Amino acid sequence: MHSSSFALWLLPLFALPSLASRTITVNNKCSSPLYIAVAGQGGSITKVGGGSQPAGWLQKPGEFSFGVPEGWHDARVWARTGCEETGNSLKCVIGGCPGEDTVECSGTKFGTAGATLAEFTLDRNNMDAYDVSIVDGYNLPMEITASDTKCPKGSCGVETDILGACDPSLVFPQNKDKIYSCNSACGNLVQFQHGSSTDLMSADPNDSPVCCRKGSVTVPHTDCPNTYIPFYKVMKQMCRDAYVYSDDDMYQDAVFACSNSGKPTYTVTFCPNGDGLGLNPPPISKAVKLDREPGDNKGNLQKGPDQVALWAGVKGTPIGNTGGESKKATQVPTVVNSDEHQTTKSTNTQSTPTGNVNAVVVTSTVTQKDDSTKSYTSGSNVYVEVTVVETVTVKRDIQDRRLGCLRGKRWVGKREMDC
Questions:
Q1: pTM check: above 0.85
Q2: Considering the chain, what is the average pLDDT of its residues?
Q3: How many other C-beta atoms can be found within 10 angstroms of the C-beta atom of residue 380?
Q4: Residue 200 near residue 193, CB atoms below 8 Å
Q5: Which of 84, 77, 125 is nearest to 103 (CA)?
C-alpha cells in the first residue's frame, strides 16, 4: 500500500512540467466581468499549479493565469459578449462556444464569429508567434504583451474603439439593432475592390480572391494582396499592430515573433485603456460611413504583385453622374456552362440616375477569362451588366460572376467612382 501510494504521488510531480510549461494571463481591465474562452491544439490548458482547468470562465476585473503545454498551437483566447446566462445555460451573440451553451467551454472548438482574438503558436522553430486578429470581427479592445520586454506588442482598439467607428456594411450580426461586433470585409461579404482600381466585385466567402479562397482550389499566398481589401487602410489605422484580413501576415505589424529561449509568458489584456463599447453595444444608428480605400501593398514581405491576372479588374467608360447612392439590387442568377462546375452567386448594385442617358459597352482587360457585356434600360435607369466567366483548369470550373454598373459610375459611401 505504501509503495503504491508513493508511486501515485510521484506521477503528478513529474508530469506537471510537461503539462503546463508556459503561462498565459488574462487581464480584465474592463469595469465588468467577462466570459473568457480558450481553444487550441497541442494539449489542454491547466491550472498554473497543475490540475484541470475549464476552457471557459466568468472573470471579474483583474488577472487570471492558466498553464499551456509547450508546443500549444493554433490557439485562441477571446471574450464572449452580448451574453445572457439563465441557470446553467449561457447564450452569447458574439464568440459563443459552438454546441456548448455553458460558461465552461471544452477548448476544442473556436468561438462563433465577431470576437477580437488573441492567437498563439508556441515553440515553432524555437520561436513563439502571436497576434491580435480581427479577421473574424472585433468586439473589445485587446493587447498582447510578453514577459520578455524585447518582444513586440500586439494590439487593436487601444487608439480607437472600432465599435464607435464601424461602417454600416461591416456591422455584425446584420440583423441586430445594436453594433455587437464590427466584422471584416471577408466575414460580412462586403464587395471587394479590383486591385488598385475603384471597380467592385461581389463577395462569396468560399470563392473570393481577397479571402484566398477559390472553392477547393488553393490560392497562392501572394495572390491575395491587401490591394483587394476595402476599408483596409482605415482599419489598419485603428489597429496598427493587428491582423486585419486573412493574409495580413505578408505585411509588417500583423503577426509577431518572440524567441522562446527564455520561455516567456504572455498577457492578454481586455480594455487596456478603459471600457470597450462591446460591454454595452451602441445602437445601429451609430454606425459611421468609412473610406473604402484598399491597401497599397507597401511593405509586402513576400514581394507579391499589387494585382494578379486571374483577378484583374474590369474597366468601364464614365457616362455621367448617377445622382444617388448605391443600394442593393435584385440578385442575378448564376449561369453555369460546364458539366463539372461550382457556382458563385453574386449581387449587383444599382443607383438612380438624374436623367435619361444611353448605355455604353464596357471593355475588359481581364486575361484568361471569357467576358461579355449587355446593356439595358428600365424607366430612367440605365445599366451595364458585365459577365465574367472564370475558368480554373485544376477542376475545370466555369463560374459566372456579374457586376452591375449604372451609367459607368458607382457611388461608394459619398464618393463617385468610375466602373
A1: no
A2: 72
A3: 11
A4: yes
A5: 84
- Dihedral over Cα of 251, 252, 256, 259: its sign: positive
Evaluate the CA torsion angle 11, 12, 13, 19 in order and state its sign: positive
Residue 10, CA atoms < 13 Å, CB-side half-sphere = 6
- 353: its cell numbers: 440616375
How much is the pLDDT for 8?
31
> How do 22-28 and 266-270 pair as beta strands?
parallel
- The neighbour count for residue 208, using CB atoms within 10 Å, is 23
pLDDT tens, position by position, 25-47: 999 999 999 999 999 999 999 99
> Rounded to an integer, what distance in angstroms lies between the CA atom of residue 213 and that of residue 295?
19
Residue (of 416, 157, 166, 134) closest to 289 by Cα position:
166
> Contact at 8 Å (CB) between 348 and 330?
yes
Q: Which residues contact 400 (CB under 8 A, 6 or more apart)?
A: 334, 335, 336, 337, 343, 344, 387, 388, 389
Q: Is 373:384 a contact under the CB 8 Å cutoff? A: yes
Say if residues 45 and 25 touch (Cβ distance below 8 Å). Answer: no
Distances (CA, A) of 242 to 251, 270, 346: 11, 14, 30
Amino acid identity for residue 400 in this structure? D
